[in-house]
């Protein structure tokens, strides 16, 4: 249900029906995407695209949190007393 | 690729897997709902990397798999008509109906075309005014905003030769149905990150509360799934049963309001038949009265079609996590991707296809 | 009619068959009569122009040294006929040159058989023939004989082309899937999945704003360089066309009765091709290539073969991607970037774009 691919918004325009449309780049390959559901998105921001529609704008701060957690884990590991192998 | 590659790193995965291993003290059964998640888990080999205490079962998160055979037979009947251009996502083309599949209709000369976006189907309708263009509107809530927009635009632009065959299904009722089954063994859920991107996750809070089961909204990259599992195990070990959001870079509690607004304008909630499971009340979308002219199920004379399901397929049990694909007596023998008995063996995201392709026994 | 009065012989790029008279291919162009002769002389012979073809026998007569010959045939039914970076014509030349090269042979000549659907625009045919001529010239492999038939409208897909190639295998070269042995390394000549994506990207409904080109190319100079460096230590050569790298490796593993283990990380792929695969939901390992080569090489020669590949323009991104193992004979396994292991199975049917 959910092939949603992150891509970078490179162009935004309004079409004949007043809808936000645009171009999104996926690793350099550009596709036409409907931006009606992410009307606040700016050029240069990333969106998740599913069947030609942007369904969310990626929150870059939140995206970093996975790695923040991992970094903390790494620090905790260094604090662990090494186990004696049996 | 940004926001893709960072979530596929081996070193980070190891850290999380170690953390899971050191926190787990007893067996847990976790269900991941989305076919796309099943696919990643198996393709990246994550299920083999998790400690033995953790059993992953695969839920009915494959809208292709749960599309009732009757609807597929209707689609096939419509696609066979000479005046019809039948458009669909690629996923549906090899799913078996009672006697055929859409790919066969195509090879017999039917005008069956794969589209990437429902808007492409509307464009085809505009370009072929003397034809009837039908779009197979399948999907969970993730795809509903796109399908709704297609219908809305067709109405606005007066594209009268366009219609949709609608088979939309909703996740929360499916979760309730699974948790309502007496023999279910699910103790934690990984909820579908893109469904929740659209719908938010507030709908899962009463479910988590009522059934005392943790629900972790999870993304689709390997690191997302491992972190989601980590969060589920942590919650289970600590006896917590809340909804937590692993996929916060895309999901908020309220979801995408603009999308929900258009979905509500175009669709209404209805009972739906889930292939292999049966009718779940209030579990799907149908077109509202205002858009009923675009309903292909009514525009074409297909109401009398009845499906004949093969008795052998245990898709229902598999999609409810009660059985593993490998437990099915027909798995890999009478039922293979080349000659499937049911949808989960065909769809790229179907649990059976994933198991078959990636060699699980 | 004398030669001087016919527009014919193609010095320039104008279609030699007068378009105003014959805008499309007719049944009679394949009938063996005057129109047939005109098509052959003015289009095919003029374009492919070489001494052997100029003999105009029913078959070509070649003077080759005695020894082992490689002989390969392939038919091309690709649709659409024209795609970014190539067409059915160039594909047909490259494909057969490559099949011969994958036998460890030096391609000498190819034939070209055409089955044309009545109604194919003459301009399209001319474009295809020119493309074949260019590909053959660039590869240094002439089209020395051929055949033309025309079928009723509706009985063909525009045009089908069969090419058959012949090549000479030098002494000291032994290519066979059965030579793959545990310990051998698996080499890949460059970035995968470009061709299949290029074809997909011009199918209706799947267009991209970016042009993604096929990688269709003749590989015989690349293989020659590899064989010159390591001779008998090159055990297997195969070009991963339909079904991609995954299918080819499965075939080799099955034929040789060995296991193959590859790593995801070193497999080269262009960012744009990867982006396209992500959008369509394709696994690049199963997407067709038309200008790539897989080699299974004795471990002790792998580094120098790799260097020989990288010194060639078509092997600039060559990489070692895996090894042949004793375990799981007949099966291919992949170590994913995340560190997990999974089976890489044969694909059943064509990959289709998916939403799920």
Strand content of chain C: 15-25%
If helices are DSSP runs of H or I spanning 4 or more residues, what is the number of helices of chain A? 1
What structural class should be given to the helix and strand makeup of chain A? alpha+beta
CA-atom Rg of chain A in angstroms: 20 Å
Write the H/E string of chain C, N to C.
HHEEEHEHEEEHHEHEHEHEEE
The proportion of residues in beta strands of chain A is 35-45%
Number of strands of chain C: 13
CATH-assigned homologous superfamily of the largest domain in chain C: PurM-like C-terminal domain
If you consult CATH, what is the topology of the largest domain in chain C? Phosphoribosyl-aminoimidazole Synthetase, Chain A, domain 2
- The figure for the number of domains of chain A is 1
Textual characterization of the structure:
- The complex is a heterotrimer of chains A (86), B (361) and C (356).
- With 86 residues, chain A is an alpha+beta fold.
- Chain A has a single domain, classed as SH3 type barrels (Roll).
- Chain A has one helix at 60-79; strands at residues 5-14, 20-26, 29-34, 46-50, 53-57.
- The longest helix of chain A has 20 residues, at 60-79.
- Chain A is elongated, with a radius of gyration of 20 Å.
- Chain A starts with a strand and ends in a 7-residue tail after the last helix.
- Chain B is of the alpha/beta class and 361 residues long.
- Chain B has one domain (1-325): Rossmann fold (3-Layer(aba) Sandwich).
- Chain B is built from 16 helices and eleven strands.
- In chain B, the strands form two sheets. Chain B has a six-stranded mixed beta sheet, with helices on both faces. A five-stranded parallel beta sheet of chain B has the order 2-1-7-8-9.
- In chain B, α7 runs parallel beside α8.
- The mean pLDDT of chain B is 90.
- Chain C has two domains: 23-169, 60s Ribosomal Protein L30, Chain: A (2-Layer Sandwich); 177-344, Alpha-Beta Complex (Phosphoribosyl-aminoimidazole Synthetase, Chain A, domain 2).
- In chain C, α6 runs antiparallel to α9 (302-310).
- Chain C is globular.
SSE topology:
The complex is a heterotrimer of chains A (86), B (361) and C (356).
Chain A: E1 5-14, E2 20-26, E3 29-34, E4 46-50, E5 53-57, H1 60-79
Antiparallel strand pairs in A: 1-2, 1-4, 2-3, 4-5
Chain B: H1 10-23, E1 28-32, H2 35-43, H3 46-49, E2 54-58, H4 63-66, H5 69-80, E3 84-88, H6 102-107, E4 111-114, H7 118-127, E5 132-139, H8 144-157, E6 162-169, H9 171-180, E7 188-192, H10 193-199, H11 204-211, E8 215-218, H12 222-237, E9 243-245, H13 257-266, E10 267-274, E11 278-287, H14 296-299, H15 315-319, H16 351-357
Parallel strand pairs in B: 1-2, 1-7, 3-4, 3-5, 5-6, 7-8, 8-9
Antiparallel strand pairs in B: 6-11, 10-11
Helix pairs in contact in B: 1-12, 7-8, 8-13
Chain C: H1 34-48, H2 51-54, E1 68-76, E2 82-83, E3 86-87, H3 88-101, E4 105-117, H4 122-139, E5 143-151, E6 159-169, E7 185-188, H5 194-201, H6 220-230, E8 234-238, H7 244-256, E9 259-263, H8 271-280, E10 294-297, H9 302-310, E11 319-325, E12 332-335, E13 341-344
Parallel strand pairs in C: 4-5, 9-12
Antiparallel strand pairs in C: 1-6, 2-3, 4-6, 7-10, 7-11, 8-10, 9-11, 12-13
Helix pairs in contact in C: 1-4, 3-4, 6-9
């Amino acid at each position: 249900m959910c092939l949603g691919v992150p891509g970078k918004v490179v162009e935004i325009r309004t079409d004949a029906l007043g809808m936000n449309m645009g171009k999104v780049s996926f690793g350099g390959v550009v596709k036409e995407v409907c931006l009606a559901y992410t009307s606040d998105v700016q050029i240069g921001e990333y969106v998740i695209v599913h069947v030609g529609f942007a369904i969310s704008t990626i929150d870059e701060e939140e995206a970093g949190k996975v790695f923040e957690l991992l970094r903390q884990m790494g620090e905790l590991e260094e604090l662990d007393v090494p186990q004696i192998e049996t | 690729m940004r926001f893709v590659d960072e979530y596929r790193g081996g070193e980070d995965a190891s850290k999380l897997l170690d953390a899971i291993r050191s926190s787990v003290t007893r067996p847990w059964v976790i269900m991941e709902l989305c076919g796309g998640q099943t696919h990643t888990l198996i393709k990246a080999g994550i299920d083999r990397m998790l400690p033995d205490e953790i059993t992953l079962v695969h839920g009915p998160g494959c809208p292709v798999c749960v599309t009732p055979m009757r609807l597929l037979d209707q689609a096939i009947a419509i696609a066979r008509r000479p005046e019809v251009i039948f458009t669909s996502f690629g996923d549906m083309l090899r799913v078996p109906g009672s006697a055929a599949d859409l790919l066969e209709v195509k090879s017999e000369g039917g005008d069956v075309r794969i589209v990437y976006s429902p808007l492409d189907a509307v464009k085809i309708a505009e370009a072929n005014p003397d034809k009837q263009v039908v779009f197979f509107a399948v999907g969970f809530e993730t795809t509903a905003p796109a399908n709704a927009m297609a219908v809305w635009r067709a109405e606005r632009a007066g594209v009268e030769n366009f219609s949709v065959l609608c088979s939309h299904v909703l996740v929360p009722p499916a979760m309730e149905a699974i948790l309502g089954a007496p023999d279910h063994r699910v103790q934690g859920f990984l909820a579908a990150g893109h469904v929740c991107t659209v719908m938010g996750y507030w709908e899962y809070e009463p479910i988590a509360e009522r059934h005392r089961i943790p629900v972790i909204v999870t993304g689709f990259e390997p690191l997302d799934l491992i972190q989601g599992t980590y969060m589920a195990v942590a919650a289970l070990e600590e006896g917590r049963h809340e909804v937590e959001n692993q996929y916060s870079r895309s999901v908020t509690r309220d979801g995408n309001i603009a999308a929900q607004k258009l979905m509500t304008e175009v669709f209404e909630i209805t009972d739906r038949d889930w292939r292999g499971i049966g009718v779940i009340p209030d579990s799907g979308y149908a077109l509202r009265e205002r858009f009923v002219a675009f309903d292909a199920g009514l525009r074409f004379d297909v109401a009398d079609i009845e499906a004949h399901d093969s008795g052998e397929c245990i898709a229902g049990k598999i999609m409810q996590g009660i059985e593993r694909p490998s437990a099915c007596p027909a798995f890999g023998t009478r039922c293979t991707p080349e000659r499937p008995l049911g949808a989960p063996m065909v769809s790229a995201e179907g649990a059976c296809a994933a198991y078959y392709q990636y060699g699980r026994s | 009619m004398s030669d001087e009065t016919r527009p014919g012989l193609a010095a320039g790029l104008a279609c030699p068959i007068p378009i105003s008279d014959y805008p499309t291919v007719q049944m009679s162009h394949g009938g063996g009569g005057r129109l047939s002769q005109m098509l052959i002389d003015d289009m095919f012979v003029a374009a492919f122009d070489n001494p052997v073809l100029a003999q105009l026998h029913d078959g070509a007569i070649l003077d080759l040294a005695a020894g082992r010959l490689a002989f390969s045939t392939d038919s091309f039914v690709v649709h659409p006929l024209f795609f970014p970076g190539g067409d059915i014509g160039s594909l047909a030349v490259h494909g057969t040159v490559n099949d011969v090269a994958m036998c460890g042979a030096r391609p000498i000549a190819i034939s070209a058989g055409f089955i044309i659907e009545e109604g194919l625009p003459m301009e399209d045919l001319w474009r295809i023939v020119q493309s074949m001529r260019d590909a053959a010239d660039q590869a240094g492999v002439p089209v020395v004989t051929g055949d033309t038939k025309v079928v009723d409208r509706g009985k063909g897909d525009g045009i089908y082309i069969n090419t058959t190639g012949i090549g000479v295998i030098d002494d000291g070269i032994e290519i066979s899937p059965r030579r793959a042995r545990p310990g051998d390394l698996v080499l890949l000549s460059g970035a995968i999945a470009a061709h299949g994506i290029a074809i997909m990207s011009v199918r209706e409904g799947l267009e991209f704003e970016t042009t993604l080109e096929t990688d269709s190319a003749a590989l015989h100079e690349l293989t020659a360089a590899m064989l010159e460096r390591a001779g008998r230590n090159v055990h297997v050569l195969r070009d991963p066309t339909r079904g991609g790298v995954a299918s080819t490796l499965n075939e080799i593993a099955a034929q040789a009765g060995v296991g193959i283990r590859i790593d995801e990380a070193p497999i080269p792929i262009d960012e744009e091709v990867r982006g396209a695969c992500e959008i369509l939901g394709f696994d690049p390992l199963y997407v067709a290539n038309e200008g790539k080569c897989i080699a299974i090489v004795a471990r002790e020669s792998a580094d120098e073969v790799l260097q020989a590949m990288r010194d060639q323009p078509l092997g600039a991104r060559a990489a070692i991607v895996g090894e042949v193992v004793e375990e799981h004979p007949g099966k291919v396994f992949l170590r994913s970037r995340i560190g997990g292991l999974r089976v890489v199975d044969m694909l059943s049917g064509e990959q289709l774009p998916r939403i799920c």
